Amino acid sequence: MSQIISGTQSPARPSREKSVLIGVGVAGWLVIGILFVLYGYGQTWRLWGIQSRNPFFLDLRLIAGMVQTLHMGLDPTLQNPGDPRGRLFNYPRVWYLLAHTGLSQADTLSLGVLLIVLF
Fold first, then answer.
1. Predicted local distance difference test score (pLDDT) of residue 58
2. By CB atoms within 10 Å of each CB, which of 3, 10, 33, 85 scores lowest?
3. Closest listed residue to residue 35, CA positions, set 27, 45, 26
4. Distance between CA atoms of residues 72 and 88, nearest Å
């Protein structure tokens, strides 16, 4: 108590539990990365009974498709030829701001990784 009052408290260190949790998380991502290399994307997820679809980040391709459809002069909520599956765009219109970036299907992987890192 006297250390706290006098201001001589030692700098905070991460707890052992927090360090273990971070280590387990990093190890888990490493294992998944190695399995991607060894078995491929789809087969890795099927090991755990998780369905995967091609192309990867299919949900983000809807956003890139929306940008391409807007550049064609069409309304992606009515028809969306820019989307690989032709799905109508049903996300909030705030995503239309990305139309000014020139986003394309080729940028889907980068956008997906960026969103994962930001999360």
1. 85
2. 10
3. 45
4. 15
Q: How far apart are CA 116 and CA 61, in angstroms?
A: 15
Residue 45, exposed/middle/buried by CB under 10 A (0-12, 13-18, 19+)?
Answer: middle
DSSP per-residue codes, 38-51: HH-HHHHHHTTT--
Residue from 66, 74, 55, 115 nearest 90 by CA? 66
Does the structure show a pLDDT above 90 at 110? Answer: no
Q: Residue 50: what pLDDT?
A: 85
Q: Averaged over 11-25, what is the pLDDT?
A: 84
- 64 touches 96 (CB < 8 A): no
- Record the tokens describing residue 8, joined without a space: 């001589």
pTM of the model: 0.59
User: What is the distance between the alpha carbons of residues 73 and 75, in angstroms, rounded to a whole number?
Assistant: 7
Asked whether residue 12 carries a pLDDT value surpassing 70, the answer given is no
